[in-house]
Amino acid sequence: MGRLALAFLVALSCAFAAPAALRAVENPVNAKSELIERKTIAELQAENTRRPDQISESDRTGPRAEMMRKPFAFLNAEWEALKARMQPGDELWTFASSPESWRDLAGRAGIALVRDGQIVERLVTMMN
User: Fold this and answer.
1) Where do the structural domains in the chain lie, given as residue ranges?
2) Most exposed residue of 17, 71, 90, 112, measured as fewest CB within 10 angstroms of its CB?
3) What is the pLDDT of residues 7-36, one digit of tens each?
4) Over 60: is that where the pLDDT of 63 sits?
């Protein structure tokens, strides 16, 4: 799968991904090969918030309605936690693990918090 295809899937993944956790990186890693595109908070929220026509009728009116309208839907709490941990100079990037990891059914994609060139935290929005 190409990197652009993965970036597109990352943007759509909240609708289809199993719940994932915010993952702190114990030892910050320089994993620039995983980074795809630098994004702003506003860009990420716009790309990961569903329009009403993208939400099923039952989710628009049912008990899940409020959550479905938030950025990152069911991962919203993890997204808010990631934003709260940001420090001046930090960057947000989309990321995807290597093509080999996807072939081996261990692929991960999502949002990386980058500090001083090192990934210090990840919000995994897609995995296989």
Assistant:
1) 3-127
2) 90
3) 444 444 433 443 445 555 554 555 677 999
4) yes
Alpha-carbon span 86 to 90, nearest angstrom:
6
As a whole number, the mean pLDDT across the chain is: 79
Contacts of 12 (CB under 8 A, 6+ apart): none
**CA 116 – CA 2 distance, rounded (Å):** 27
Lookup: tokens for 72: 């990152």
The set of residues, in sequence order, having a beta carbon less than 8 Å from that of 107 and lying 6+ positions away, is 96, 97, 98, 101, 126, 127, 128
Coil, strand or helix at 59: helix
- Report d(CA 36, CA 91) in Å as an integer: 12
Query: Any idea what the Cα angle at residue 102 is, between residues 100 and 103, rounded to 5°?
Result: 65
**Distances, alpha carbon 82 to alpha carbons 21, 34, 52, 65, 77, in Å:** 11, 18, 25, 23, 9
**Which residues are registered as beta bridge partners of 115?**
118
- List the one residue out of 125, 98, 119 whose CA is nearest residue 15: 125
